[in-house]
Every structure is written in C-alpha cells, then in structure tokens.
C-alpha cells in the first residue's frame, strides 16, 4: 500500500466514525445545553437532572439510528477487506 492509499483509508475511517457517532453526540450536546439553561433559569442544581435525560435520549437515538450505523460499518468493513485482499496480490 502506498502512502496515499493509507491516508485515504484513514480519512475514510474517520469519516465513517464521525457519521456513526454524530447523531448521539448532537443529541447529547443539545440535551445538555437545554438542561443547563433549565437549571440556570430555575436555580435547580440537581446532578441527576443533567444525566438522566441525556442517557435516555442518547439511548433512543442510538436505537433509532442503529440500522444506518450498521450499514455504514458493514460497508466500511467490506471495503477494508477488499483493500486487504487487493494488497495481498
């Protein structure tokens, strides 16, 4: 494998990782921001208030996007196996 191919594979790896993780990260960010604003406005400083909604909603988003994530991961794995098979020749 040449250096350009390795860089291409690593870029593809990071892109797939970003696509798989992005929905959960965005929901976690939005929920955390909303809870922080709520805590600031109401002066409620309960620690569990920030964790429980985030865990529940991130879990729901992971379940909702599981099909897409598995498709991306499977397609990436197939491409990598194809690269590995081609590199052995």
3D structure, described in words:
The structure is a single chain. The chain is built from three helices and no strands. The protein has 89 residues and is mainly α. It has one domain. Helix 1 runs antiparallel to helix 3. The chain is elongated and about 60 Å long.
Properties at a glance:
mainly alpha; 89 residues
Structure at a glance:
It is built from three helices and no strands.
How is the secondary structure organized here?
Layout: H1 3-42, H2 48-64, H3 66-87
Characterize the main sheet: none
Helix content: over 70%
Which spans of ≥5 residues are poorly predicted at pLDDT below 50?
none
- Strand residue content: under 5%
User: How many beta-strand elements?
Assistant: 0
- Please work out how many helical segments DSSP would assign: 3
Structural class of the secondary structure composition?
Answer: mainly alpha
Rg value: 19 Å
Give average pLDDT, whole number.
90
Could you give the distance between the termini?
A: 11 Å
H/E topology pattern: HHH
The domain tally reads 1
C-alpha geometry:
elongated
**Assembly status:** single chain
